[in-house]
Design a protein that fits this description.
Elements lengths: L12 E6 L4 E8 L3 E9 L1 H5 L6 H22 L9 E7 L3 H18 L3 E5 H7 L31 E6 L4 E8 L2 E7 L5 H11 L7 H8 L24 H13 L2 H6 L2 H30 L3 E5 L6 H10 L4 E3 L3 H4 L4 H12 L19
Parallel strand pairs: 1-4, 4-5, 6-9, 9-10
Antiparallel strand pairs: 1-2, 2-3, 6-7, 7-8
Helix pairs in contact: 2-3, 4-12, 5-7, 6-9, 9-10
This protein binds 5'-O-[(R)-(carboxyoxy)(hydroxy)phosphoryl]adenosine and zinc ion.
Zinc ion binds next to helix 4.
């Protein structure tokens, strides 16, 4: 007779809160992966007229949104605070005033409801986000426990190299476990998404402009403008994007400035395509170097810039023998599901915080 399955463990449900930049987000995630709700209140329209995030406006919007967003996340999950095994919150890195809203709110609720509190690193959560919302892990292997009936969040975790590329970060890391992260390289100046946003502004494409540049690049000639591939000739896994942005600005001037560019559709598309080709070349070459140096054959690409079509196409073509995982679009950009998901591993490892928890705006991943 086949052995009877053991008793089902109670699912571990966590309410995650994210407020590090310009998105107020809350989500309920079960057992580190299964998303019961994922609510994001974006402030993009508030900041668009300033061409970037204004910290004071962002903090105030978080204050207004945090309660309704958390209430909505619980309601959509059909759950109450009492059903949560813990509360999780982004502690850093990010804008101090924005982080403060999330951390102080989470501390107050955790204390009042006697819930464990978990502090999560925003970029580590991006690196983890390939695992969110899946019944199979990012590499296509089933996560369904085989017979034991346990719901261990560590089940079948595979080591991988991960890129976190967004408006705030460009990090390359070896992820040997959700909490076992070795930073291999970061940007020395602008983040790649920041460079996208800056060139979009130079080209009159609005804010945030990464998606607009991506769209125009699809119809352009990537070889027309010879833009640099920063840090490619150098050894190492660091990035730099500010020189590329300056080279783009020079080309805009040569073409007669932003007004002239706005009326020259061909030049605009070709310039976007040339910029995108430079970014993609650098990101893929560095990722390839990291894969070679670590001996790993799995790559995860996460963060807002992982939405980029040109990058996704190139990843599929240019890395033979490497399994590439990209999160679902809603888990690429800032969200709280990745915070709640990673928090499950912190909780399993007894890494919780007390009411003395403070924000860490410049929190490095290795510290
Ligand atoms: O992860 P995210 O929501 O926030 C940060 O942590 O920064 O990423 C937002 C960034 C913005 O810079 C935006 O322009 C960029 O992601 N982005 C893109 C695309 N979609 C969003 N960049 C390039 N191509 C895209 N399709
Ligand atoms: Zn982010």
């Amino acid at each position: 007779m086949p052995p009877r399955p053991g008793p089902e463990k109670e699912p571990v449900r966590i309410l995650g809160i994210e407020s590090s930049c310009d998105e107020t987000a809350a989500a309920v995630v079960e057992d580190g992966r299964r998303v019961l709700s994922n609510v994001v209140s974006s402030q993009v329209p508030l900041h668009a007229r300033y061409g970037g995030v204004v910290p004071e406006i962002a903090s105030r919007a978080h204050l207004e949104q945090i309660v309704p967003v958390c209430e909505q996340a619980l309601a959509e999950a059909n759950a109450r605070l009492e059903d949560m095994a813990a509360l999780a919150v982004t502690r850093g890195p990010g804008l101090a005033g924005c982080l403060l809203v999330g951390v102080e709110f989470a501390k107050a609720v955790a204390t009042a409801r006697r819930l464990p509190l978990v502090a999560v690193h925003h970029v580590a959560a991006h690196l983890y986000s390939v695992n969110i919302g899946r019944t199979h892990d990012a590499w296509g292997e089933s996560l369904t426990p085989t017979g034991s009936g346990t719901r261990d969040p560590e089940t079948r975790n595979q080591p991988y190299v991960a890129l976190a590329i967004s408006g705030g970060h460009t990090s390359l890391a070896a992820v040997r476990g959700p909490l076992d992260i070795e930073v291999l390289g970061e940007t020395l100046d602008d983040a790649v998404g920041e460079a996208y946003d800056k060139v979009a502004k130079l080209a009159g494409l609005g804010y945030p402009g990464g998606a607009a540049v991506d769209r125009l690049a699809a119809g352009g000639n990537p070889s027309r403008f010879a833009l640099p591939r920063p840090m490619l000739a150098r050894e190492g896994l660091e990035f730099s994007f500010s020189g590329l942005k300056t080279a783009f600005a020079r080309e805009v001037q040569k073409l007669g400035g932003p007004e002239a560019l706005a009326t020259d559709e061909r030049a605009l598309a070709d310039l976007c395509a040339s910029f995108q080709a430079a970014c993609v070349d650098v990101l893929i070459a560095k990722a390839e170097r990291a894969l070679r140096s670590t001996g790993l054959n799995r790559l995860a690409v996460t963060g807002g810039v992982a939405c980029n079509r040109g990058l996704r196409d190139a990843l599929a073509r240019r890395l033979p023998g490497i399994t590439v995982a990209v999160p679902e679009l809603e888990y690429c950009t800032d969200n709280a599901a990745m915070i709640a998901g990673l928090a499950c591993h912190h909780l399993a490892a007894d890494r919780t915080s007390g009411p003395e928890l403070n924000v860490k705006p410049g929190w490095g991943m290795g510290s």
